[in-house]
Design a protein that fits this description.
C-N_Hydrolase_sf; Nitrilase/CN_hydratase_CS; EC 3.5.5.4; cyanoalanine nitrilase; C-N_Hydrolase
Length: 345
């Protein structure tokens, strides 16, 4: 595993003007690939990376979108309008088998890792809820407690074929000893109303696990840091063709003939940005890496003095947002509870 962290992680060299009265948090974003179709091995890899980050003093570690369960890049699951193929259905069965239940044994293992290495952990997973899958982020504190989850509200393009839609009940911001932490996944970061809801919850460390390695992603991350007056931590996988099963077991639709085992299919670009828009670490496009920075939380107040999007820079008498934060249930049972045996009332 060619981690840049083997020679030491990439730390910020930016002087943020920190002072002793404001706490500092050492944060790491992990840029590494899933071991596709092998959830147990992926969890083993996650623990190795977590241990390495903790060894450098990291208090918060953020993993990429769909790290556990895998991001099925290039696969179309045999879908066209009005038709599905048997091979595509079998691909979904295998993908479903690689997902995890929340709660479940894999969640317990992740919680154990967070407690063992004394880090707050933000982990991208594919969540299995019956026979529906969700692209989800799980949160754990440094005591090994599972805090909760965020389900991706809006899967993009063909993602909608394989993933369900989150609802307003899983847009948490958790108050922790190292700051208020939440997450939005990949292109839902481009949804301004979702961002506004998170700002209203007071987010300070905004995690953005993604699968987007394009240069324009960096502009979105910088904008969110400035808009929200928060630290933005974006983690993406770095993957080569050989990190996925070989054909015919797994095929990159439309591009397979142009790929060799060492071809890069996701180039990373993981980055950490301050509330002033300063790039603290990254973006990295060179390979698997641990990308780290020290976050001066005093920078949040300094940034919000200029611009507080849900505070002094808001105009609620003109513009307002309603968030329906209850679970959207497809079936609700309203039958009255059974009377206790022997009751005559």
């Amino acid at each position: 595993m060619a981690l840049l962290a083997a020679e030491g992680p990439l730390f910020a060299e930016v002087d943020m003007g920190a002072d002793s009265s404001a706490p500092t948090v050492r944060a790491t974003v992990v840029q590494a690939s899933t071991i596709f179709y092998d959830t147990s091995a992926t969890l083993d890899k996650a623990e190795r990376l977590l241990a390495e980050a903790a060894g450098y003093g990291s208090q918060l570690v953020v993993f990429p979108e769909a790290f556990v369960g895998g991001y099925p890049r290039g696969s179309n699951f045999g879908v066209s309008i009005g038709a599905r193929t048997p091979k595509g259905k079998e691909e979904f069965r295998k993908y479903h088998a690689s997902a995890i239940d929340v709660p479940g044994p894999e969640v317990e293992r992740l919680a154990g890792m967070a407690g063992k290495y004394k880090v707050h952990l933000v982990m991208g997973v594919i969540e299995r809820d019956g026979y529906t899958l969700y692209c989800t982020v799980l949160f754990f504190d440094s005591q090994g407690r599972y805090l909760g989850k965020h389900r991706k509200l809006m899967p993009t393009a063909l993602e909608r074929i394989i993933w369900g839609f989150g609802d307003g009940s899983t847009i948490p911001v958790f108050e922790t000893p190292i700051g208020k932490i939440g997450a939005a996944i990949c292109w839902e970061n481009r949804m301004p109303l979702l961002r506004t809801a998170m700002y209203a919850k007071g987010i300070e460390i905004y995690c953005a696990p993604t699968a987007d390695a394009r240069d324009v992603w960096q502009a979105s991350m910088t904008h969110i840091a400035l808009e929200g007056g928060c630290f933005v931590l974006s983690a993406n996988q770095f993957c080569r063709r050989k990190d996925y099963p070989p054909p015919p077991d797994y095929v990159f639709s439309g591009t397979e003939e142009d790929l060799n085992p060492d071809s890069v299919v996701c180039a990373g670009g993981s980055v950490i940005i301050s509330p002033s828009g300063t790039v603290l670490a990254g973006p990295n496009f060179d390979g698997e890496a641990l990308i780290s920075a020290d976050l001066d939380l005093g920078e949040i107040a300094r940034a919000k003095f200029d611009f507080d999007v849900v505070g002094h820079y808001s105009r609620p008498e003109v513009l307002s947002l309603i968030v329906r934060d209850h679970p959207a249930m497809p079936v609700t049972f309203t039958s009255a509870p059974l009377k206790p045996e022997g009751s005559h009332k």
